[in-house]
């Protein structure tokens, strides 16, 4: 009964049907980051393309030089064109100047002019007016990138909401080695979207509570979904929708109030973080022992100092106690469950376990 209601709700959310649109219609919604290319390099590239088209035309004319006649220099002769004549003809032809002193006279030369020289002339003109053409073709280029991205994206991370929580989560992931291009941000706020684009992230302009916005972010192929919405009600709805679309993905959700934590769990969240209580605890600890708060912040900041990391148990460590290892072990992850080091089950690590350890931020894993 509840699942039937959920399906009907998802159908209502699908009214926009963004994923069914043509890629060109998604240019203003889905943005794929691209590398910066300086204006000088763009101009240099256009010059290279123009010279390439010119030399290609010269080569084609030179190979069929017996099919052309230079009326001005030898109107009655059937002498083939020189290399300089071919360069001259290609230049005036591609630039559409066309003085008419050198003309194709054989059928093969005329056919080559129609099938090859004319397209080269068009390409040459496009390069010359590249700035205007580039503006006109931006949408097409972005649509092609969207098409390629949607076909190839797999095992990425989707972040719903790019406020303080979402932005901090992305910063932590990038610091841990996650490629920015492998993170997709779903957000409606224009300022937040611009910040995400500037960070090199893939962005989707849309409401994260709606199935179509999540589907456009390829949430069904995502490895991890981070829910950082501005309200607990939105977080529950995003989590419920994401779980329906991606049954196997790992969902991590932030919740403001602890009494709403069970709603996120029921909606399908694997891990929940209570932001208000966490901040409150740190504020309370800071009253008596502010240095403890500094250590906690240091552990949660992977760029410098100490950091919490997860690593697999090696074959030599099997059977050892995590309390007697050189590293400081905080916990043992076995079959997806976290075991404290003081529990009897964690006294001897097993092959396949993972250890939560404290390491220096710049040390090797």
TrEMBL record:
Q: Does the keyword Transmembrane apply?
A: yes
Q: Name one GO biological process term.
A: potassium ion transport
Q: Where is the RCK N-terminal domain?
A: 154-274
Residue ranges crossing the lipid bilayer per the database entry: 43-63, 111-133
Q: State the UniProt keywords alphabetically.
A: Membrane, Transmembrane, Transmembrane helix
Topology in the lipid bilayer is annotated as: Multi-pass membrane protein
Q: Which GO terms describe its cellular component?
A: plasma membrane
Pfam families, alphabetized: Ion_trans_2, TrkA_N
Instruction: Answer yes or no on keyword Membrane.
Output: yes
Write out the annotated subcellular location: Cell membrane
- The protein's name is NAD-binding protein of Kef-type K+ transporter
Tell me what organism the protein belongs to.
Answer: Mycolicibacterium arabiense
Q: What is the lineage of its organism?
A: Bacteria, Bacillati, Actinomycetota, Actinomycetes, Mycobacteriales
